[in-house]
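Work Package 4 report. The design task specified in the project plan requires that, given a folded chain encoded as structure tokens, an amino acid be chosen for each position. We show below one input record used in the internal validation round.
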């Protein structure tokens, strides 16, 4: 087994002893490799229980073949498989024109359902180094902030990604050398998806420009991630320094908040809203609206959402949650 994966797991503290892990199993090479790796760790006593989860998106007429393959593969690793069809999930998903996002939202809902049902500790996904590269360029094209360009995290909430610094070529080489079967999804070659266009066009062109691309990209991404973490830590310090805790709510000192550099100001706002547990859309325009209101000299209130509003009084800004009559 590729040795650097276990080091990556230890470095980022991805797996706890005696834990239960749900693995997203599509049947493709990445998830089959991750299943093989995690089953080996479980057998060595590294953690307690492994459960495979497969969502049939029903996008192909023969998608049931994938379910059968995943069931057999899971059985070969003494791992139970939980399978479901997207049409049978106990919720509906809004389609905004992106089939890729629709599938991602459906999988996340399904995986979280399995996590709760089995009281599992984490959900393991098979994102690897090339997924990291593709995500970076997708977000770059969409005008992401530094937080967005920091790309995929090894651990986020209940999700862990043990293969994030493993190259796809290493995965395929291992599977081939050990005669481990996997499925090939024809949609991965379709230029219908932006991710595929980046994978098939942009990344090869960059590697052609400089053969050191993989190594240099990893180095640059770590610099971005370290910068992002520094800014996040600074924002946390400023939130504490600028706020007064009143009845378990944060009241923000408006004058000193507005004196902060814009890059820190938005992060403080984000932390403030999250700590207050309110719903909000993450967008540049939304944060600008809040700042414009705080810059006004008069007091008063401003409805930011149907469930909450910001109130200004005596140089402080606080959030009032509204109780809706249903």
């Amino acid at each position: 087994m590729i040795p650097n994966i276990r080091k990556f797991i230890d470095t980022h503290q991805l797996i706890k002893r005696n834990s239960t892990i749900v693995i997203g199993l599509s049947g493709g090479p990445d998830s089959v490799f991750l299943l093989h790796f995690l089953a080996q760790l479980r057998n060595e006593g590294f953690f307690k229980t492994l459960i495979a989860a497969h969502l049939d998106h029903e996008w192909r007429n023969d998608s049931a073949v994938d379910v059968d393959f995943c069931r057999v593969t899971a059985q070969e690793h003494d791992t139970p498989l939980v399978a479901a069809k997207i049409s049978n999930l106990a919720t509906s998903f809004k389609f905004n024109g992106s089939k890729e996002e629709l599938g991602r939202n459906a999988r996340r809902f399904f995986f979280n359902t399995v996590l709760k049902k089995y009281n599992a500790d984490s959900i393991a996904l098979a994102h690897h180094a090339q997924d990291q590269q593709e995500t970076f360029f997708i977000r770059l094209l969409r005008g992401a902030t530094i937080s967005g360009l920091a790309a995929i995290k090894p651990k986020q909430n209940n999700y862990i990604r043990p293969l994030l610094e493993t190259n796809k070529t290493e995965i395929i080489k291992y599977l081939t050398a050990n005669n481990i079967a996997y499925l090939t999804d024809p949609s991965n070659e379709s230029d219908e998806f932006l991710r595929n266009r980046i994978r098939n066009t942009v990344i090869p062109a960059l590697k052609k420009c400089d053969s050191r691309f993989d190594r240099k990209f990893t180095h640059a991404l770590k610099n971005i991630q370290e910068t992002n973490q520094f800014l996040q830590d600074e924002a946390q310090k400023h939130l504490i320094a600028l706020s007064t805790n009143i009845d378990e709510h944060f009241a923000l000192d408006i004058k000193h908040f507005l004196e902060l550099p814009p890059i820190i100001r938005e992060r403080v706002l984000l932390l403030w809203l999250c700590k207050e547990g309110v719903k909000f859309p993450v967008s540049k325009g939304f944060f600008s609206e809040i700042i414009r209101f705080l810059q006004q000299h008069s007091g008063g209130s401003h409805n930011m959402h149907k469930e909450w509003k910001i109130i200004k009084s005596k140089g402080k800004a606080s959030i009032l949650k509204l109780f809706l009559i249903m």
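The chain has two domains: 4-209, 224-321. Validation will be extended to a larger panel in the next phase.
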